[in-house]
Design a protein that fits this description.
Layout lengths: L3 E6 L2 E9 L4 E3 L4 H5 L2 H14 L5 E8 L3 H19 L4 H6 L30
Parallel strand pairs: 3-4
Antiparallel strand pairs: 1-2, 2-4
Helix pairs in contact: 2-3
């Protein structure tokens, strides 16, 4: 099965191809630790595999663009979870209970006029 599934988080989008194999994971043609540079982000990528219990039995190829590295790791995680459900529908309940199938809706808040940042105000002066 080589269907392309899209995952997203913040401004990052990831296209994930999952097929049965020996557990090789490539993100933008690189090893996940080399691409992300931090082990905690690699753990986020591995989270759906560990939850479903298919860590060494599927190969994953991911193409990710947009956003920062944290959002990209979340997008790859979301894409892997969705493709695992497509691969094996029985894995839906453990992935859903772990909250991996829902796209995280949190986005950057817009800048408001008259404020220093998104919510921070300028210092008030009475005189």
């Amino acid at each position: 099965m080589t269907e392309i599934i899209t995952g997203s988080r913040k401004r990052a989008r990831a296209k994930v191809i999952l097929k049965s194999g020996s557990g090789i994971i490539k993100i933008n043609s690189r090893d996940p630790l080399k691409y992300f540079g931090r082990q905690d982000l690699v753990d986020i990528v591995h989270q759906p595999l560990n939850t479903a219990g298919v860590t060494g039995s599927v190969d994953i190829k991911g193409k990710v663009l947009g956003g920062g590295i944290s959002g990209q790791a979340g997008a790859v995680c979301h894409g892997i979870a969705k493709s695992l459900v497509k691969f094996n529908p029985e894995l839906r309940s453990p992935l859903k209970s772990a909250g991996l199938l829902k796209r995280d809706p949190r986005e950057k808040e817009r800048m408001k006029y008259g404020l220093a940042k998104r919510r921070k105000r300028f210092q008030f002066s009475k005189r």
